[in-house]
């Protein structure tokens, strides 16, 4: 009877230890800080995103209202991605700071990693109201001291972290003694010991030691020993923090645009005037965005006067639900009007394209719609007079 009781007790202990171990293994990371205002995750789930080299945005997970980070890292064909945009994949070794300055390294020697497709993700963005408003950053709360005995100051985070995507499962173990090309002296030691899984891997860059280099009257801190290894993003020594990158007024503008109902194709086409003074419409096309923009909620118009050899090509773009486009326009306005007095600021921005021998004009209406126009044989002021006759404001009033 005592033996049976002992066995039952032992099984119960093992069961609870197993449950506790599973809970410890599956514990999700938490955000260490909390931003105010629209970026306060306690009011609404925050979405994690990353933009791929081809410009396509992918979702990487979310931060829920209790501050828990749920990574949901999607797999993709990284080789097909880079090939589709005719972009050379990254040099694998250089992503881990191993390069031609390694002692006794032959840069032309073939390695198992020459044909590996991989990419390093340094930033995960928080997206809200259609724009990137903050960054989720992994940091170390552990500080280290320089190996210079003359200082006791803590000089740097001892660990950096990043996500790494790779097209295959492969071990990576390497050492590199970085040497000065002039003196041949070793100034840093780099080492890696990683068992990569195909897809996403979370990597720790452990800055083991640093040294001071005297430069004239100052001292520069230089890493002297770094070790790369794989780690879990749930590891307690990884501290996840939020950092706001968008100014409050930019967020409020994005919020306003994100709440608006976009104009319809019918509204655009009904509004478009058939004539601009002495110019007649020859092209009216919906959904063809201007260069460097992806917003298809626009109207492409061309007005011409063959007898005077005048032609104006323009786009009228609605930024409702597309605040990123208006941010680009606001940046152009800011650059154009930098250091100008109020009396010198015009309601539009112009630029002469020497290559195409054309005047380009940019004009925004109520921080929602922008017009981009180009014309040959017409200067900036004359082009602006034609744009005023469009009466873009009427497009919004008739909404």
UniProtKB/TrEMBL annotation:
It comes from the Bacteria. Residues 1-21 form the signal peptide. Keywords: Signal. This is DUF4367 domain-containing protein.
């Amino acid at each position: 009877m005592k033996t049976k009781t002992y066995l039952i007790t032992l099984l119960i202990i093992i069961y609870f230890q197993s449950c506790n171990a599973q809970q410890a293994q599956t514990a999700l990371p938490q955000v260490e800080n909390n931003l105010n205002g629209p970026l306060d995750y306690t009011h609404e789930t925050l979405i994690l995103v990353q933009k791929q080299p081809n410009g396509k945005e992918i979702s990487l997970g979310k931060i829920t209202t209790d501050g828990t980070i749920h990574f949901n890292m999607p797999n993709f064909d990284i080789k097909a991605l880079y090939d589709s945009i005719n972009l050379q994949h990254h040099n694998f070794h250089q992503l881990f700071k191993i390069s031609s300055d390694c002692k006794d390294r032959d840069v032309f020697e073939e390695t198992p990693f020459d044909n590996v497709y991989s990419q390093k993700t340094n930033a995960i963005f928080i997206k809200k109201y259609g724009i990137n408003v903050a960054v989720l950053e992994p940091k170390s709360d552990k500080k280290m001291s320089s190996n210079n005995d003359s200082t006791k100051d803590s000089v740097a985070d001892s660990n950096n972290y990043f996500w790494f995507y790779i097209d295959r499962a492969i071990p990576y173990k390497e050492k590199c003694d970085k040497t000065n090309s002039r003196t041949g002296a070793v100034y840093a030691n780099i080492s890696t010991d990683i068992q990569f899984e195909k897809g996403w891997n979370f990597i720790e860059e452990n800055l083991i030691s640093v040294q001071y280099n005297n430069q004239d009257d100052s001292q520069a801190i230089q890493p002297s020993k770094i070790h790369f290894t794989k780690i879990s993003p749930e590891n307690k020594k990884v501290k996840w923090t939020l950092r706001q990158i968008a100014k409050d007024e930019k967020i409020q503008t994005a919020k306003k645009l994100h709440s608006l109902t976009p104009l319809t194709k019918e509204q655009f086409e009904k509004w478009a005037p058939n004539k601009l003074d002495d110019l007649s419409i020859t092209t009216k096309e919906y959904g063809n965005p201007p260069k460097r923009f992806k917003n298809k909620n626009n109207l492409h118009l061309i007005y011409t006067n063959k007898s005077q050899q005048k032609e104006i090509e323009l786009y009228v773009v609605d930024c409702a639900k597309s605040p990123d486009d208006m941010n680009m326009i606001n940046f152009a306005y800011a650059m154009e009007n930098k250091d100008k007095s109020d009396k010198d600021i015009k309601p539009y921005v112009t630029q002469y394209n020497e290559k195409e021998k054309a005047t380009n004009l940019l004009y925004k209406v109520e921080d929602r719609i922008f017009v981009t126009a180009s014309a040959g044989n017409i200067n900036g002021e004359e082009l602006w007079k034609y744009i005023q006759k469009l009466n873009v404001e009427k497009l919004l009033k008739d909404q």
